[in-house]
């Protein structure tokens, strides 16, 4: 009787990098200026942004938000200039979820 091999079509899980990135000094969390950059593309991020704003503010940090404008055409240069100005006034900038 002939034999067959059954293949498993599921992929192996991806190798995850557990490094959360650079640390934020505890003193900065209690007195720093945090900027949250967002855009109007992904509305679910607004909920996350609101939660971070509350938690950081409760911890003593100052929080400001900036909504990105157009990234193409004539408005792209204005958006970049606004972003640079916004970022210069922050100790930490959170820009999206990194996905």
Structural account:
This protein is 35% helix and 16% strand. With 99 residues, the chain is an alpha/beta fold. A three-stranded parallel sheet has the order 2-1-3, sandwiched between helices. Helix 2 links the parallel strand 1 (33-38) and strand 2 (62-67). The chain is elongated, with a radius of gyration of 21 Å.
List the secondary-structure elements in sequence, H or E. HEHEHE
Using only CA atoms, what is the Rg? Answer: 21 Å
**Biggest beta-sheet profile:** 3 strands, parallel
Gross morphology: elongated
| Widest β-sheet, arrangement of strands | 2-1-3
**First-residue to last-residue Cα separation:** 51 Å
Question: Count of helical segments?
Answer: 3
Number of strands: 3
Structural class: alpha/beta
Which terms would index this structure?
elongated; 16% strand; alpha/beta; 3-stranded parallel sheet
In short:
The protein is an alpha/beta fold and 99 residues long. It has helices at 26-31, 44-58, 75-88; strands at residues 33-38, 62-67, 92-95.
Topology (elements, then pairings):
Blueprint: H1 26-31, E1 33-38, H2 44-58, E2 62-67, H3 75-88, E3 92-95
Parallel strand pairs: 1-2, 1-3
């Amino acid at each position: 009787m002939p034999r067959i091999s059954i293949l498993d079509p599921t992929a192996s899980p991806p190798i995850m990098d557990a490094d959360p990135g650079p640390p934020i000094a505890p003193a900065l969390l209690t007195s720093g200026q945090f900027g949250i950059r967002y855009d109007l593309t992904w509305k679910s991020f607004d909920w996350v942004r609101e939660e971070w704003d509350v938690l950081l503010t409760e911890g003593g940090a100052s929080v400001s938000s900036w909504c990105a404008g157009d990234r193409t055409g004539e408005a792209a240069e204005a958006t970049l200039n606004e972003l640079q100005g916004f970022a210069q006034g922050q100790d930490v900038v959170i820009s999206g979820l990194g996905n």
